[in-house]
């Protein structure tokens, strides 16, 4: 009997042929079903852990048509020596060979985008399909109508690429694929020289792209009055969120944040943006690492990358934090600020920092690049329109409300963290998603009853002083039952506790509650999520 890979009980071997055949088929079917189930579960697990997991952007031209190495080799003799055929007959290249990856990028840019391009040995070599994902995500952000338009219709979309590199990839792709204008900044001579060469070799794009040395005393924040640069030229260490820490002092995020180092390199946006300039967006593929060892240079690929491109003091966290600080000064000079982020932990920390500094909207996405993931982080300070989409309007279990009377230093994020910890301490399962800016709560009727018990509800100690400016925060409540009134009572109580705990006079606070909700459901457990809209 050939080795089927399935071991059978010994007496099965004595069975008559037909019985054995049935058994073998049954085992095979069970095996297939199990495999299928595992496969489906793996798929589900992936989506569950990755949230809105994204691969290649649906508008990315390589989404349905990955680069055809054989065709490229037949069309471009310079690429041909790098292509070999594996045993299964598939054309491949050696991803650990820098010359091969550089030649692939060159021919892809030429063949698919009509772009002439080159970089010197060792400079960071971009993977065209990956870089296109970020461009298309920016396109998605610009199409969102939650922010007011900041330029006249018909004006060309204009972006700022922080750290454009010798490869100048984002301006070249953004201008050739979407006709956008770009300013690309960098700090090294080699990047400035080669980015300019790459622009000059494409006369059809050169009027769309300007290469600029960062921090050369342009406009806002020029060296002599740059509010961020200290007299020693280092970065002034603002204690992040100092006035906002409050009850969060011990939270994990804060601890992580405070443990981080600070960027002390050349200016980033301040000093690079000229007086009167406005941009639709900025983008950045930052130096991700603190050391070249950390960069670890993936042994499975060779995309080059010099220390100047890969490394900065404090790593990506510090660099992006610096972009955030600059954006706080530049505010609506950019419609959207954005950056790539290499680590999920940093993404969460940066999202929470953005809410603290007053961003009006924060968006994130995941870019799946082969076996690694990167994240996109975008934010704005423009007023967000409170338009409720038609799908939200028909959902009867969605409720929007305002929490008024908060002091301005208590951001909506603080309120959500308070809700999370308050409910957790009362036994409910409560999970804050910093990126999505909401808290998911699973709570039982008994737990709600305990929270609403008169002794728990004693809110009489409310004679605190109110100081500072007051503000109001819009929230949205999504509830898996129609029993909103119960939740509103509970949240009203939690918010009142928050205000009391933070020395805000009780009578200043107001929670608008709809009149027509009824208390009827008898389910044991509900799911509710509260977030900012
Ligand atoms: C990871 S590389 C990105 C290059 C290119 N944008 C890409 O995606 O391949 C980071 C770039 O940021 C540049 N850089 C570092 N500090 C900078 C600063 N303060 N302002 C502008 N660019 C900076 C580096 O020289 C480097 O070219």
From TrEMBL:
Its EC number is 2.1.1.-. Keywords: Membrane, Methyltransferase, S-adenosyl-L-methionine, Transferase, Transmembrane, Transmembrane helix. GO terms for biological process: rRNA base methylation. GO terms for molecular function: methyltransferase activity. S-adenosyl-L-methionine binds at residues 131, 163, 186, 285. GO terms for cellular component: nucleus. InterPro entries: METTL16/PsiM, METTL16/RlmF, SAM-dependent_MTases_sf. It comes from the Eukaryota. PANTHER family: RNA N6-ADENOSINE-METHYLTRANSFERASE METTL16, SAM-DEPENDENT METHYLTRANSFERASE. This is U6 small nuclear RNA (adenine-(43)-N(6))-methyltransferase.
């Amino acid at each position: 009997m050939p080795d089927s890979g399935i071991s059978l009980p010994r007496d099965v071997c004595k069975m008559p042929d037909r019985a054995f055949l049935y058994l073998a088929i049954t085992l095979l079917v069970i095996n297939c079903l199990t495999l299928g189930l595992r496969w489906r579960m793996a798929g589900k697990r992936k989506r569950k852990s990755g949230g809105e997991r994204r691969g290649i952007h649906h508008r990315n031209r390589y989404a349905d048509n990955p680069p055809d190495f054989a065709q490229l080799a037949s069309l471009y003799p310079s690429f041909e020596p790098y292509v070999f055929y594996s045993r299964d007959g598939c054309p491949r290249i050696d991803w650990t060979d820098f010359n091969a990856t550089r030649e692939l990028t060159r021919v892809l840019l030429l063949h698919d985008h009509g772009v002439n391009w080159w970089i010197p040995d060792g400079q960071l070599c971009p993977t065209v399909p990956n870089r296109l994902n970020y461009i298309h995500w920016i396109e998605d952000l610009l199409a969102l109508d939650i922010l007011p338009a900041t330029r006249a219709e018909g004006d060309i979309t204009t972006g700022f690429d922080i750290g454009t590199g010798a490869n100048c990839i984002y301006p070249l792709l953004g201008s050739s694929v979407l006709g956008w204008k770009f300013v690309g900044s960098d700090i090294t001579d080699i990047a400035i020289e080669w980015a300019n060469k790459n622009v000059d070799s494409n006369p059809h794009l050169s009027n769309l792209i300007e290469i600029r040395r960062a921090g050369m005393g342009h406009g806002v924040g020029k060296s002599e009055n740059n509010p961020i640069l200290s007299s020693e030229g280092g970065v002034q260490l603002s204690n992040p969120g100092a006035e906002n820490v409050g009850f969060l002092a011990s939270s994990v995020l804060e601890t992580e944040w405070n443990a981080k180092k600070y960027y002390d390199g050349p200016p980033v946006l301040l000093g690079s943006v000229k007086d009167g300039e406005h941009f639709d967006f900025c983008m950045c593929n930052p130096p991700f690492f603190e050391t070249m060892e950390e960069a670890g240079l993936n042994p499975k690929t060779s995309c080059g990358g010099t220390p100047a491109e890969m490394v900065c003091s404090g790593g990506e966290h510090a660099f992006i934090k610096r972009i955030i600080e600059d954006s706080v000064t530049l505010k609506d000079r950019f419609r959207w600020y954005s950056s790539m982020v290499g680590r999920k932990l940093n993404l969460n920390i940066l999202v929470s920092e953005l809410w603290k500094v007053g961003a009006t909207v924060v968006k994130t996405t995941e870019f799946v690049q082969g076996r690694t993931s990167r994240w996109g982080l975008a934010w704005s300070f423009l007023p967000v329109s409170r338009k409720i989409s038609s799908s939200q309007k028909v959902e009867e279990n969605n409720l929007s409300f305002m929490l008024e009377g908060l002091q301005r230093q208590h951001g909506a994020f603080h309120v959500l963290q308070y809700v999370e910890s308050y409910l957790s301490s009362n036994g409910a399962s409560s999970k804050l998603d910093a990126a999505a800016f909401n808290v998911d709560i699973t709570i039982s009727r008994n737990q709600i009853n305990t929270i609403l018990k008169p002794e728990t509800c004693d809110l009489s100690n409310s004679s605190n002083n109110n100081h500072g400016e007051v503000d109001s925060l819009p929230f949205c409540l999504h509830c898996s039952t129609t029993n909103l009134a119960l939740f509103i009572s509970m949240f009203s109580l939690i918010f009142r506790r928050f205000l009391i705990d933070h020395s805000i006079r009780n009578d200043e606070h107001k929670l608008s509650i709809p009149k027509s909700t009824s208390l009827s459901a008898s389910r044991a457990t509900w799911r509710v999520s509260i977030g900012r809209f």
